[in-house]
Amino acid sequence: MTTSTFRTNGTSSKTTGLPVAVIGAGPVGLAAAAHLLARGETPLVLEAGPAVGASIRQWGHVRFFSPWKYTVDAASVALLEPTGWTLLDPEGAPSGTDIVQNYLEPLAALPQIAPHIRLGARVTAIARRGHDKMKTPGRQDAPFVLRIQCPDGTEEQVFAKAVIDASGTWTRPNPLGADGLPAFGEAAAAERIFYGIPDVLGRDRARYAGKRVVVVGSGHSAFNALLELATLADQAPGTEIIWAVRRAQVGQLFGGEENDALPERGRLGTRTRVLVDSGVVRYTSLRIAEVRRTDLGLVLVGEDGEMLGPIDEIVCATGFRPDLALTRELRLNLDAAVEAPSALAPLIDPNVHSCGSVPPHGADELKHPEPDFYTVGMKSYGRAPTFLLLTGYEQVRSVVAAIAGDWESARNVELVLPETGVCSTSNSSGESAACCGTTAAVVLPVFNTRDAQLLPVLGAASLSSAALAPNRTGLITVPLVTPSATNSCCCAVEQTACCEPAGKTSCCGSEAVLTSSGCGCR
Length: 522
Known about the structure:
It contains twelve helices and 16 strands. It is α/β, with parallel strands linked by helices. Among the domains are: 20-171 and 320-411, FAD/NAD(P)-binding domain (3-Layer(bba) Sandwich); 419-522, no CATH class. The strands form four sheets. The protein has a five-stranded parallel β-sheet with strand order 3-2-1-7-16, covered by helices on one side. Strands 8-15-9-10-11 form a five-stranded parallel β-sheet. It has a three-stranded antiparallel β-sheet with strand order 4-5-6, with no helix packed on it. Helix 1 links the parallel strand 1 and strand 2. Helix 1 runs parallel beside helix 10 (389-403). The chain is globular, with a radius of gyration of 24 Å.
């Protein structure tokens, strides 16, 4: 029988001397610990898994789009370099396993970091000590209390002066159902559904070899799965591959391809297009409502009754969502749709735009009515699919500065991201519509990343294109583009879509108003 013990790291109702709790020991969580140490704060890193980088280890076979130089944090490197650690090929693209073995494990083993990490410590709830969500008097001075489930089934609780939630979203994949709910029958078929990117050519080979497999999703997770399945099909006769997406037409499904400022990402789209064009992968559109068991295999049933199958295995690559249950007793201000902090949500909402780069942001955009609680990293983006790893590093730099009381530094957002060259808005027809943007915008083919798995996707500095040449900082210099008078938000013609809502004022003036769900001005 499971028992509970009551152990704490203190009994004082004051926050003096308490650590800053960091939930998650992935790249962003460990970066938060490094920044806290640099500020003279004490981190307490609580990792649910048995090792650091537990989520990344589950997709260790997947290669990042971004090179090594964009996957490490400055404060973490400052701790590593005195030990003789060196960055591997700065321009090389590491796999998830490379990141764990050559960066996260050495970082976590440092004597400055290691004593502050607790593995197998799953945070199940967070509150203010002695204050439920409704109680206001004295709330701001009360420490946070975090309930922890231990590997042996017991419970503990710890107190903290502040909380940085960097737990990510990997453990909360989106379901197959087009309405956001698990498709009818999905749970009953769970043993035949893989959520994420299976290791088709490695540990999961036997599961897919010679089988009828459908991949659901329209992002780069799906691309990776399709490409590995195609390789398997060459080696294992009888392997059949179907790709099911929720959109009616292919359109610009494959992204910018050769025009993509991220070459590795562009090549994924190009290689996937070849698979579809050659017939190796059969493409279909289906908004899934039911997973039905039959004697011949699983059948996917659409909202209008159309059927796909029979099939043996399903790969669900439809993205992820945050686990909000552990913060029910905190006062958070989250966007109703994106489930990101309300100030950040308009910058990343895929209903408005799908740009690979997001305006720099920090503690001001991430703060909540609950002082000193911040969500960072992938989880800060809620359900949005455009997270970049360097963004998470800048988030924690700013947030730690705010926790330390240095709001000047917290508000001095220092991040400059490489341009991706891919940006779109969605109009009522569901197709992408490009319009004017800021004067530095480049209009390139569009990629809708609604269902993308969220991996770091930087690396534009490796481009050889003269139009998007890297400057001495390794970032992209984008040539100025002047929109034509007939396709400009600045002209008298009413426009129903505009690339960036944040740019409406400079582009259209203060009277700019929305004209569609895809944003725009007139």
